[in-house]
Amino acid sequence: MPHPPDQPRAERTPLTINTVPVFDVRSPAQAVEALPYLLSCQPDGPDGMVFVLVHDTLHDRPLFCQKFDLPSAKDDPNKAAHNMMHSTLHRLEKLATGPAAILVYLCARQQDAGDGHAAMTRHRTVATALLLSAETHGIDTLAAMFVTPTHWWVYHHDNPNYRHEGMPVDGPDNPGVVTMNARAVGIPTPPSQAAIAASLEPVTGKDAAAQRAAILHAVGERAARVQATSFDAETERLTAILDRLLLDGGDGTPLEDLTPDQTAELIVGLRHRPLRDVALEYIEPKELPRARELWALLARRCASATTTLVAAPLTLAAFTAAVTGEVPAALIALERARKADPRYLLAGLLMEELVMTGSVDEIADEFREEREARLRGRDN
Asked: Superkingdom of this entry's organism (predicted)?
């Protein structure tokens, strides 16, 4: 692959899961070192993945990336490999490019990182199935590798220098060629996926029990208020609370001090589009830090990563992260939102926008206009 383009930082395409930074990669070690830049984050999150980089062999350049869930022991490896390869080929056909080859990364789950060699051995059947599926479809494979945060292995190799216990991963703390080249052109070190995910993890124990009870109570209270007044009146009531907490920087109330009942009524209210759309308006510079804090807090206080209620605060957290330019954090939050509720349309829309353009600027401008109209109406 050619060297990184010599462009000013502001003019380079943002790093997202499908815009591939171009590095001079000449070995498996450098391919592993480039992985965080391809992912836009360090591959140290709780869930494993299969990451496929498609390379244009005619023009010697990367084309796009695809990310898939790492198959479990219960999955049929051949079926999983076929589905992954079919998805990759479908996208490749749309590009109408020439011959292509793939580079396959199997990234360990967090619980497997402590015994990487054993995990690598367990997933060998998946790697073999991917290699066979690629061969069947007429695609060359540059390499198939298993990667943990600290070590890597190459499947089906005959290099005697590769150690049984794995080869060490180069990165920010022990930079190799790829990291040095990235720093030279101003590409920042990708953030930790584990740290981003941890900031969105649901509360547990007594806190979770109290929050679940508060959410159940909030559902009944909301129904009673809507019946006594109107749906619009309830939306206006909750909008006033969000304005107090966030508008122009908010009133300074420590958000962590919000009670379970206070956060529960916001969580339940945000499930409904009118309030959710108002929540998307708090994206001015004075508001963004507290808005990000509030949406992450509400996501944690949903007390479950699988309840459909968590889709709204996670999507709001993603939107504010994207507005500030933190695309990796936005993508991780959106993936969690879509897992919680695959039908949540806004999460899919934002994901598509980030993948295709690397920003949410156009969507943000629309909600700024909505905000101006709302505030004018309120003042009048």
From this structure: Bacteria
